[in-house]
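Pasting two entries for a bug report.
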Amino acid sequence: MKKYFYSLPVLFSVILFTSCSDSKTYFTPAIRSRVEANSVQLTKIQYFVDRDIVLKRELDKGETKVISGTVKFENGHYENIITLKKGTPGVCTVVAPNKVSISFEVGDNKYLNFGKTLQGTSTDPYRVLANQWEGDEGIITYEGKTYHIQSGTEASVKIKTKWLTTNQVDSRQMKGRTVSDNGTQ
């Protein structure tokens, strides 16, 4: 009996913790269809990246102005590295067929494209898209500069599951009628 007494508070804590957690789901073409069917604008949803993404570019000689990220001297070259951490929130700035542009920081041209991949199905998550691929490394344009996705090429975005159950409901209660409402008695 004693061992069950100690298990109850633990079980209650687990149930309470999981019921209060804000669950997220991967943003897929099927999820996008459900959200849009509920008349929710994709630009009004909070997105979250599911893993770290590291962008890297080699600086040109004489280039000293770095807008964001860190500068690192490696192998005789200066490199600009921008890191996007897992769980970072972002907003949708552009909606296009089969893709969305998600911005994780304020500023012009500061977004990553996520969308359906060539072999992706309607249940596969929207993944980070590159302009081109060199082996396993994606090449993108960020802040108007060319960057290589050094890690996180399989990164996807998630949304809160609450957007899947959002329904617009127009509700009213009938007041009833009396014989005098007809104009006849």
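Entry 2 (this is the one that rendered wrong in the viewer):
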Amino acid sequence: MNKLNQGFVQIYTGNGKGKSTAAIGQAVRAAGFGLKTYIAQFMKEYPYNELISLKHLTQWIKIEQFGGDDFVYKKELPAREELDKAEQGLQNAKEKMLNGEYDIIILDEAIVAIYFKLIETNDLIEIIKAKPKNVELILTGRYCPEELIDLADLVTEMKEVKHYYQKGVTSRRGIES
């Protein structure tokens, strides 16, 4: 049973670090109030550490992964299998959004999945338009299309000012992954 009277559409985008972290932080904060969150992660089959830590909050937060990002590094278009996984992720998220069990739905990296041709902008527009009044919907990812920004109630752009990647530091377990 939903506890929110009014849910909004939030977007975390931009080229800076912290988009997924902000969305997951919102889920953790919401859990403290007893709100239930469903997180669909796109392009993240890697065992990111949030999967481990969120296991302690399964009463309030459910997280599922739909597809990887190997095709990006290989500079290829996504294979049919990856397209199917993304489609399944959208279907699952929409069902969870409409079934009344969850207060918050997070589509993590769904926006960048548009850029990499896994998802179409219209797929996310349909989900936004189908959102029940009492559900919060959070989308993350770089390269946000203007159409989604126009539909959102809150948009935060993470802007990279300085990053240690530029000094050759790679992804660190527990910080970036």
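Dev reply: Rendering is fixed now. As a check, the viewer should reflect this: Helices lie at 19-32, 49-54, 70-73, 80-98, 110-115, 121-130, 146-151.
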